Amino acid sequence: MKLTFYGGARQVTGANYLLEIGNIKVLIDCGMFQGSRYSEDLNYEKFPYDPAEVDFVFITHSHTDHAGRLPKLYKEGFRGKVIATNAALDLIRKALPDNLNLIKQEAEEAGREPLFSLKDLEGVLELARGVDYEEEVEIGDGLKAVLHDAGHILGSSMVDIQYPINNPPSHKASVDARFSNPLNILGEKTGKIYFTGDLGNPPTPLLKPYKFVDDASYVVIESAYGSRTHEDKAERKNILQKVIIETMQRSGVLMIPSFAMERTQELLYELNNLFNSGKIPKVPVFVDSPLATNLTEVYRKHSDYFNKETAYLVETGDDIFNFPGLKFTRTAEESKQINNVPPPKIIIAGSGMSTGGRILHHERRYLQDPNSAILFIGYQVKGSLGRRILDKEKEVKIFGEKVSVNCRVEAIGGYSAHADQQMLLEWVKAAATGGKLKKVFVVQGEEDSSLTLARKIERALEIDAIVPKPGESFEL
């Protein structure tokens, strides 16, 4: 069994792992590189393997850095099966067309061909198949996969690949072959390799917590916050409330760069509670994002993924994503009209790292206003505009213009949808309790973060924890 790390190695984005067992080839995630000056070139590079030989792609969740290169994989010859949860696929069906529009625009500006076409996007979606958590998927003779709840965003999963230890699969399963009950074909000599995808940060307003496992042979674990600990969850709501009140008292504009998926829906849930309880003043709130508007509808559709408390609210008729004063803006004209609404007001817009999207127009207008504030509620990757603002740069460039940063700059780490160092360690410790764990591979983090977590794992468990280099392969 061979595992190769083609993305997400010593970097946060671009998750792409190839697992070869016998003559079966399985990809875990096919994400875009984001946030650095080299990202575009990396995305345009040909895949360093033949996509036509890949049998299955398991997508852990719908974020672009995990699913964004799926159409490119199809473009280069992939015709296997794409497997993800039903909710994740619904989100991907909304997010990828939006991503394509941005890709076309950027390609035109750069004078190059788009990364992929609408035909590629539609083609790969036709290969996609939704599954439920804990449903077993046969992918080869004696080889199966199970998706478990990762608690990161709606429909996110960790991928559990189960393989016979002494008998590599001799032929491939039909891409349509699935079974819902164990057939005991693996016997006792079974190994399991877990790809965590992105683990969540429980408890969250909307989702159930991620699943703990105790029978791992190998683990591939994320490390976005592998060197840090989040603020207390109660504190994050206090910070949100405080920043809103203080900005509104100064008749300022509160800008919140937010990922259209999960973060925006969590934020709306929190704002709904704060407004309804009278803890913050009733001011206009704009969700200036067509994608966030569309994705919020997917969240409404898949309320069965919510935790018990939130599911109960939905069942009793509470529209958790709506409150007086909230307006979703779809069109460019509606977005421009936000400028005509005098402060105080709150603007939630993408992208979450200020690397594009409508938030840039608002930042160009209000970053220089000392009465206004910008609040980051998500991870800001190194090199992104959001990270530069967060790092207190006095001046940034937006649309080629120099813009002074005079507004208040705040961040709430507790809003991260990623597990922090302590949570990641606890998850690995649980995975090792069965006594089978041989190696841990630490990925999807900046290099320092991954190395820090790897050292912590080695000290705690006396197990090899490896931070792979891009393109590095391991025989398991």
Give a verbal description of the structure.
The chain is α/β, with parallel strands linked by helices. Helix content is 31%, strand content 22%. It folds into two domains: 2-228 and 417-475, Ribonuclease Z/Hydroxyacylglutathione hydrolase-like (Metallo-beta-lactamase, Chain A, 4-Layer Sandwich), CATH 3.60.15; 233-415, 3-Layer(aba) Sandwich (Rossmann fold), CATH 3.40.50. It is built from 14 helices and 22 strands. It has a seven-stranded mixed β-sheet. Strands 7-8-9-10-11-20-21 form a seven-stranded mixed β-sheet, covered by helices on one side. Strand 8 and strand 9 (157-164) form a beta hairpin. Helix 4 runs antiparallel to helix 8 (290-301) and helix 13 (421-431) packs across helix 14 (447-461). The chain is globular, with a radius of gyration of 22 Å. Keywords: Hydrolase. Residues 264-389 form the Beta-Casp domain. This is MBL fold hydrolase.
